[in-house]
Amino acid sequence: MSPLVKIRSERDQMSAVERRIADFILENAQLLRDYSSQQLANALGISQSSVVKFTQKLGFKGYPDLKYSVGEAIARADNGDTPQVAEASSGEGGGSSAGHLWRRKSEAEEATRLINPPETLHAVADAIEQAGRAGKVFIIGLGEDDIHARGFALKLSLLGILTVHNFDTARMTANVSAASAGDVLLVFSEHGNHPALCKIARYFRERRGQVITVTRHTANPLRALADLCLVVSAHDELPYIQPLLYQSALQHLLDGVFVQLCEGHDDLHAQLLANLDRIQLMLEP
Fold first, then answer.
1. Rounded to whole angstroms, how far apart are CA atoms 65 and 237?
2. Which pick of 8, 79, 164, 220 has the fewest CB atoms within 10 Å?
3. For the domain bounded by 99-283, which CATH number is listed?
4. What is the pTM assigned to this prediction?
């Protein structure tokens, strides 16, 4: 894994000092070879030991090891070997704002892919598939989180999986009273700290259902209640860019689960095609 991608994917779980180091490296990757650990510490106004601990926490032997690895990643990117590790400068590459946004989205999607291993996607898809055959899949998201919750609920319905979708916490609480063992609750919450969603998750676990959370890659109350969790790594210093990165990476992640369901189960795939044909016939004049 590229060290720059690793730093991006782990940034959301870093301390404030670690995030400062991470941001400096990401924004000045091309210049890192000219900095010693002491010079980097002086530039950030922190101790040299903080820099050393940061590199070791990422799995490197020390700062020189990290610096060498970053230099290699940049060289490979310049040679076109690893396009996903494109220049990590302050945002000028690509020749335009649109080009920069495209690259940042690709980086967020790559970082998110790396922190959600294939085993996790398989486990989530299997839990949803089993709940669809023997019970129900409950789905909730509030505010902007409901955009993805609603879209994913529609995809599951097309596969013939019974879904109970709601964006009202009171109604979902009532719906959950009908949950039973084997059912699944998918909770979409970017920051994972909404009290009502945490209460619904606890209630669902009392009903012996399985809770799957979709949040940022941070320690949060909702994620702590999950049996399985999907996490998103997407950050940017610009407040109008960061939500775009989160939405893009999240959609990419959900698409991966949907593809797992389609390709792993022939009957679900057949049901999808049949439903799409029915919808097409309904829309025709």
1. 27
2. 79
3. 3.40.50.10490
4. 0.73
